[in-house]
Amino acid sequence: xxxxxxxxxxxxxxxxxxxGAAAAVLPGCADGSGTSPVGGQPRSGGRLRAVFSGGGAAxxxxxxxTNLYVEIARAKALFDKLADYGxxxxxxxxxxxxxEPSADLRTWRITLREASFHDGRPVRPADVLASFxxxxxxxxxxxxxxxxSVIDLANSRAIGDRTIEFRLKRPYGEFPNALATLGTYIVxxxxxxxxxxxxxxxxxxxxxxxxxxxxAERNPDYWDGAPYVEELHLVISNDEAARVNAxxxxxxxxxxxxxxxxxxxxxxxxQIHRLPLSNFHGLAMKIDRPPFNRPELRQALFHLVxxxxxxxxxxxxxxxxxxxxxxxxxxxxxxxxxxxxxxPERAKALxxxxxxxxxTIDFDTSDASTGLKEAALAISDQARAIGLHLNVKLxxxxxxxxxIAKNGxxxxxxxxxMPLESHISQRLLTSSTTNNTQWRRPEFDKLYYDSQSTTDExxxxxxxxxMQEQLFNEGxxxxxxxxxxxxxxxxxxxxxxxxxxxxxxxxxxxxKVWIA
Length: 516
Known about the structure:
This protein is of the alpha+beta class and about 525 residues long. The strands form 5 sheets. Strands 1, 8, 9, 10, 11, 12, 13, 16 and 17 form a 9-stranded mixed beta sheet that branches. It has a 4-stranded antiparallel beta sheet with strand order 4-5-7-6, covered by helices on one side. It has helices at about 5-15, 70-80, 125-135, 145-150, 175-180, 240-250, 260-265, 295-305, 305-315, 345-355, 370-385, 400-405, 420-425, 440-455, 455-475; strands at about 45-50, 85, 90-95, 95-100, 105-110, 155-160, 165, 205-210, 215-220, 230-235, 255, 270-285, 320, 360-365, 390-395, 410-415, 475-490, 495, 515. It has 15 helices and 19 strands.
């Protein structure tokens, strides 16, 4: 690692600046008149430094283990998937040039584009099949396992050098969504070396310090066009104020995940990019254990929460109320269900029906992502009026998401964008490996599988509605709001796609960014 990289890494470790320190002002902007982005044609050269929140020593480079946003950003710098979600949530071909299903939706033929790994080897069907076999191997808890488990790998095969025929265990009408799932990156066949990752992505690996820094260099042979910047540095700070200060102090050129307040405060000195309605805010209640194994108590929270107040106090007015269902405005979203509003009397009656009057419930939250703690505190205040005591517990920033997946009963939750089908397959099926509410219903699973076995769009939409009605009435997720995802960049940074929701193809596309 170069001395400058080492210095930047140390600043990242120290949080760049005290959270309470006054933010620096970029030269030439002290008059508050604002800074216009620098224009011009794309140019090559330079270094892009981006700051994300992270997961400490538990961070991984393994592209099949990605969970944190910084891990996803690193993975997409080094690796490719067969497909990725477009800004409209439709699957877009990447390493796959396209796909063709059979009439019964049980066989899908994929043609690979001409692409090479960083060591010069061409990407071949054997690499794809080996990557997917690694994800779904026995004992694996990798995020994409539930989505890819539908593939009958033993009977899937290569046809020539660039075509794969996937045989499926059941019909899957939205199979390209599975190819775009987080963590479905393609690695060379064989045993990958996690310390020296080789992918086919726009950047080549140089160095990695978990919880501190990542450095990669330009891949001049990238199939989708070589990146403009010569080097990419990703650094870590779990403090939002420190991320802002790092950008203002010119220690980085890109800062991920800002609050609406920070965006309004600094929009005259840096570029603010509001990624449209891709930040879903909610609660996760584990329904397989007391006290939320009682549906009345889950329903009590549905009627307790003042969504309008949370939009005002947590999102500072920069969002829309949710209706306890994921994917507002996305395809198949059940927008015909009546909008819930706060009903304290109904909530109080449901608490009594559940035998929970006066009960104290631990409520996990963290500073791991913006708004989690503030939402928990506000909802805890609202709960006192109906006889519930929600004991807010501030968890470890570095391990929060892993901790709430396994432990506790109630947690602040947040999600980026994905199609409704992917949300269900990843989080709500009996086989889902990221089932944080422990929602396991065979009848629900059947509705999902039926939705994927039909080519009749009207029937599929009806099945999605029936699934969402179950979740609306008895589910473990309470989605109270949706807002833009906010990132910021220096005035000299060009090429950031402000229309790409978090988690989608053109989010964190650092290969398409240049320094003007």
